[in-house]
């Protein structure tokens, strides 16, 4: 289908919405982006971008900018929380040298996408909050200001609490997983190398990796607990609560936690993958369609993949609704598998029983010695998937 002259409104200027704007504009669509915030700013934290997400950035012409803004991850290291020494070190430069795993500050990622969107002549309209979405003909947005906006196609890239998802699927019932995550960045004055380190403890784990030329360290600290925190980064917590929860960790993680000021606190909820991704000429992508727990670091990567596939299917199909069906069929099985992998991952780091933990760590150690390539390649189905080559 020729996208020239087709008016597409994207709700949400997050990673998914901005990438979709670029991919659709490149195929000739008349795109605009509506964002509820007064500025395109991002919570100060890092994300990991794996090769499957980076492939989309490359196809959008942003490889150079992305590589300049990000750090290449050289290794993944698993360590016990209170002992010296590593349980497992996976050397990515040796065992996956053809793949580039990267760390990037979310704000830098959003900046590079937003700059490209503006350079492509796409209008990002700020302070535009969508109240509800009507998938009739034409599909229409009802804004909180009372205004109504119609288009040939509406794309809801409006994140976790998406009005577009609600219009297509009704309200869903996420449930608290019994885990909270703190996120913070601290100065890298311990000289943390270009690697992801995971400290594993009973009922908790801490992930850290460097950002911004190694000047910062990104921290994600996950704790199992009964009481829950709201599902939003706008909640900050007293850093002493974080330190108290991890006070039995060894010197290196504690020295990082000692530098934390004003961390964000996030309740981790499980949402079902949306069963309906499109109705009439309204569709959803990214977290709006499939919020995921952070334990495979794939939320933003999946949003990038969605953006590419949506544009490709629209350009390929004879009509919008056929294209949206093809988009859902191509994406849903994959994101369901990734979300399931993330759901199953946390407990592996959180083993409580001493003997079970010791046995699991021994198995990891042995695996790292005997079959490191197999350990690295177990997630090839995620990382080597390349939507820009038709996967
Ligand atoms: C602890 C943690 C760590 C993570 N780490 C990683 C990682 O390492 N790698 C990775 O790939 N992913 C990671 N993620 C997930 C990733 O951050 C998200 O999956 C990704 O940002 C989703 O992008 P999106 O564009 O779909 O939604 P969002 O980034 O949420 O963007 C939605 C946009 O829509 C706007 N919006 C919302 N509602 C409205 C409305 N009504 N009207 C107008 N605008 C609206 C919002 O303001 C926002 O700008 C992590 C998540 C968590 C919780």
TrEMBL record:
Residue ranges of the FAD-binding domain? 7-341
Q: Could you state a single Gene Ontology molecular function term?
A: monooxygenase activity
What InterPro entries does its record include?
A: FAD-bd, FAD-dep_Monooxygenase_BioMet, FAD/NAD-bd_sf
Cross-referenced SUPFAM superfamilies = FAD-linked reductases, C-terminal domain (SSF54373), FAD/NAD(P)-binding domain (SSF51905)
Q: Which domain of life is it from?
A: Bacteria
Q: Which cofactor does it need?
A: FAD
Which Gene3D superfamilies does the record cross-reference, listed alphabetically? FAD/NAD(P)-binding domain
Asked if the keyword Lipid metabolism belongs to this entry, the reply reads no
A Pfam family annotated for this chain is FAD_binding_3
Which UniProt keywords are present, listed alphabetically?
FAD, Flavoprotein, Monooxygenase, Oxidoreductase
List the protein's name: NAD(P)-binding protein
């Amino acid at each position: 289908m020729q996208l020239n002259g087709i008016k597409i409104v994207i709700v949400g200027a997050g990673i998914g919405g901005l990438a979709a704007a670029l991919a659709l504009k490149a195929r000739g669509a008349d795109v605009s982006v509506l964002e509820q915030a007064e500025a395109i700013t991002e919570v100060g934290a890092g994300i990991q971008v794996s090769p499957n997400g980076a492939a989309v950035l490359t196809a959008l012409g942003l490889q150079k900018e992305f590589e300049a803004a990000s750090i290449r991850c050289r290794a993944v290291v698993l360590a016990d929380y209170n002992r010296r020494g590593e349980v497992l070190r996976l050397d990515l430069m040796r065992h996956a040298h053809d793949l580039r795993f990267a760390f990037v500050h979310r704000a830098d990622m959003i900046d590079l996408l937003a700059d490209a969107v503006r350079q492509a002549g796409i209008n990002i309209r700020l302070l535009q909050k969508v109240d509800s979405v009507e998938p009739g003909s034409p599909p229409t947005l009802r804004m909180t200001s009372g205004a109504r906006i119609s288009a040939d196609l509406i794309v809801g890239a409006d994140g976790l609490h998406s009005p577009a998802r609600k219009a297509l699927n009704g309200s869903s019932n996420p449930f608290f997983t019994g885990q909270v995550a703190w996120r913070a960045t601290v100065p890298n004055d311990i000289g943390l190398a270009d690697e992801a380190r995971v400290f594993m403890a009973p009922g908790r784990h801490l992930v850290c990796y460097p950002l911004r030329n190694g000047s910062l360290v990104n921290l994600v600290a996950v704790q199992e607990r009964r009481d829950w925190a709201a599902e939003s980064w706008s909640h900050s917590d007293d850093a002493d609560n974080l330190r108290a929860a991890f006070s039995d960790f060894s010197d290196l993680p504690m020295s990082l936690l000692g530098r934390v000021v004003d961390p964000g606190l996030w309740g981790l909820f499980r949402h079902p993958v949306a069963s309906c991704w499109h109705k009439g000429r309204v569709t959803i992508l990214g977290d709006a369609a499939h919020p995921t727990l952070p334990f495979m670091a794939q939320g933003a990567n999946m949003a990038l993949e969605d953006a590419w596939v949506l544009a490709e299917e629209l350009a390929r199909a004879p009509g919008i609704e056929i294209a949206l069906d093809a988009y859902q069929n191509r994406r849903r099985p994959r994101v369901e598998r990734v979300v399931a992998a993330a759901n199953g991952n946390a407990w592996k780091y959180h083993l409580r029983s001493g003997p079970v933990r010791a046995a699991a760590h021994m198995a990891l150690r042995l695996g790292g010695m005997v079959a490191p390539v197999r350990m690295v390649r177990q997630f090839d189905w995620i990382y080597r998937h390349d939507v820009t080559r038709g996967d």
